[in-house]
Specification:
Helix content is 34%, strand content 34%. Strand 10 and strand 11 form a beta hairpin. It has ten helices and 18 strands. Helix 1 runs parallel beside helix 3, helix 1 packs parallel to helix 7 and helix 7 packs antiparallel against helix 8. It has one domain: 3-Layer(bba) Sandwich (FAD/NAD(P)-binding domain). It binds flavin-adenine dinucleotide. The site of flavin-adenine dinucleotide (FAD) has 35 residues, from helix 1, strand 2, strand 3, strand 9 and helix 4.
């Protein structure tokens, strides 16, 4: 049994847990990260992430954007309805930025963050599964198992970044839960036309489809009925490409190649910590969103950045003190609520083919396109968050 008391234990060494480890260690804390998977056990994640310009700045400040990181700039986003009127084009020039954001493989973002943690004076205990956490008045006790058996760590603060798994569920209350009754089928597709750094968001009768420029391919996120996902994953490539082309149309060219299909269930879940002391939830542990606007990781990274800023600006005698955790929650309230509402509204509005709503959406898109101030406002929220 180890009686040493740490400043912060981070539960989960996924991308958000790693980002938190770097930010908190940079703020001067003694940090331990515990991650259930051993380093070489993790299956590569098939997701591709659209990161905002702001997320790039945060990752650069965390020194987790190495020069060789594979990232494709997004210069413009084309939003349209398949077979209906209404379209809008958002471009980096509208907000006077070099790019709206970047497209990266989830595994590459995570890899860069993990490498950085491993190079820092942070204890990274991979292969350690947390089973129970007791939040006491003065300390938190983290109990788990690793290859040597039962372990326990004492800490002033626990930051849970377990992606919304059992630990966060045991320590938090669910305040919103909505099953979109959709699954996301993701993969990489090759087109006969170059993407020219343009992303597409298309609303189709079968659900929204996002196309993101990724190296010389497109990464796609196809939201569909969950019962359709298994057949989309198992049908042969030619048939899948035909189905995708039929659903998306030919706006991005003719699809000629396909790889790395996978699927993910889609739901909205918002959690709130049960203890006002010694505990914070970060990233997907705090909020899991529909990927329609590519906000989940971006929002989680802002959680991390703001939390480290709150810690920096406080007396750090007890980093788990409720004055710190409460101030953090207050500071994140508007941005979190904004990101959740924005994503949820889009997911619901653009997943129905109900004629009056479809007409309203078309009008909304057409108006957005001709109202530069509204467009800039929305883009600012998507890039920097709400209230920032
Ligand atoms: C299809 C799809 C597309 C997306 N696209 C985008 C996008 O374009 N842009 C964007 O910003 N976001 C996007 N997202 C959201 C983004 O992927 C997530 O927000 C992000 O990956 C969450 O990271 P995380 O570190 O919070 O959670 P996770 O990646 O789930 O990491 C949690 C970690 O905790 C560990 N863990 C769990 N339980 C325990 C335990 N008991 N003990 C120890 N360790 C534990 C796990 O092993 C894991 O490593 C998308 C999501 C989906 C599904």
């Amino acid at each position: 049994m180890n009686g040493r008391v740490r400043d912060a234990v981070i539960v989960g060494g996924g991308p958000i847990g790693c980002a938190a480890a770097i930010a908190l260690a940079n703020a001067g804390l003694d940090v331990v990260v515990v991650e259930a998977h051993a380093g070489d056990q993790r299956a590569p994640d098939a997701r591709t992430l659209a990161l905002s310009w702001n997320s790039r700045l945060v990752l650069q400040r965390l020194h987790a954007w190495p020069a060789n990181l594979r990232a494709t700039a997004i210069d413009a986003i084309h939003i349209s309805h398949r077979g209906r009127f209404g379209r809008a084009e958002l471009s980096a020039a509208d907000v006077q930025l070099p790019a709206l954001g970047y497209v990266l493989r989830h595994a590459d973002v995570h890899g860069a963050l993990r490498e950085k943690v491993l190079a820092m004076p942070v204890e990274f205990r991979e292969g350690f599964t947390v089973e129970d956490i007791e939040i006491g008045d003065d300390l938190a006790e983290i109990k788990g198992t690793d290859s040597s058996g039962k372990q326990r760590i004492l800490s002033r603060l626990v930051a849970v970044a377990d992606g919304g798994a059992a630990v966060s569920k045991s320590l938090a209350t669910e305040i919103r839960d909505h099953d979109y009754e959709q699954a996301a089928v993701v993969g990489l597709v090759r087109s006969d036309r170059p993407h020219r750094q343009r992303a597409y968001e298309r609303f189709t009768p079968t659900g929204p489809i996002a196309f993101l420029p990724s190296s010389d391919e497109f990464a796609f996120v196809w939201s569909c009925k969950p019962e359709r996902a298994p057949s989309l994953l198992t049908m042969n490539d030619d048939l899948f490409l035909k189905e995708l082309q039929l659903a998306f149309g030919d706006r991005a060219g003719r699809f000629v190649g396909l790889r790395q299909r996978a699927s993910f269930p889609l739901a909205l879940r918002v959690m709130q910590e049960r203890s006002s002391t010694r505990l914070v939830l970060l990233g997907n542990a705090a909020q899991s969103l529909h990927p329609i606007a590519g906000q989940g990781f971006n929002l989680g990274l802002r959680d991390v950045w703001d939390f480290a800023e709150v810690i920096r600006s406080h007396d750090r005698t007890d980093v788990g003190d409720h004055s710190i955790t409460t101030r953090y929650r207050k500071q994140r309230r508007i941005d979190r609520a904004g990101g959740i509402t924005f994503t949820d509204t889009l997911a619901k509005m653009f997943s129905t083919d109900f004629a009056p709503l479809a007409l309203g959406r078309g009008l909304g898109l057409a108006l957005l396109d001709i109202l530069p101030p509204a467009k800039r406002q929305i883009m600012h929220h998507m890039i920097f968050g709400v209230g920032n």
